[in-house]
Specification:
Blueprint: H1 12-23, E1 28-29, E2 32-33, H2 35-41, H3 60-68, H4 97-108
Antiparallel strand pairs: 1-2
């Protein structure tokens, strides 16, 4: 029996939210996470001391939002450029690193031994 694919990458936010709900159901109200309650259950309390060390840069929140956005791309094999395509256990993929990783995540979750990303220098 095959699992029907919806053509999207994994919805990590939904998966993480469900994990949190299963462990800390009291931290959710109307399907919204109460972060203060979650922190207090973990023994950490909000104080008004905002002098903390952080690794921040302009555009960081946009980068994180983009990384969590679901991908609708598709990976297509190129049989004519492949060597021994049907018998190999290796795959060579060209494309945008973030998009490719999101697409691989759905199909190859917990199955990949190594990913090598080579930067292209023009």
């Amino acid at each position: 029996m095959y699992k029907k694919l919806d053509g999207l990458s994994m919805d990590l936010e939904k998966i993480n939210k469900e994990k949190l709900k299963s462990v800390f159901p009291e931290c959710f109200s109307e399907d919204k996470l109460d972060i203060d309650k979650l922190l207090s259950l973990c023994g950490e309390y909000i104080d008004n001391d905002f002098e903390k060390y952080k690794f921040e840069w302009k555009g960081k929140s946009e980068c994180l939002r983009l990384a969590r956005k679901r991908s609708t791309g598709t990976l297509r094999p190129c049989h004519e450029e492949s060597v021994n395509f049907d018998d190999t256990q290796n795959i060579y993929i060209e494309g945008d690193n973030l998009e490719v990783l999101k697409l691989l995540q759905t199909t190859y979750y917990n199955k990949v031994k190594m990913i090598y990303i080579e930067p292209i220098i023009a």
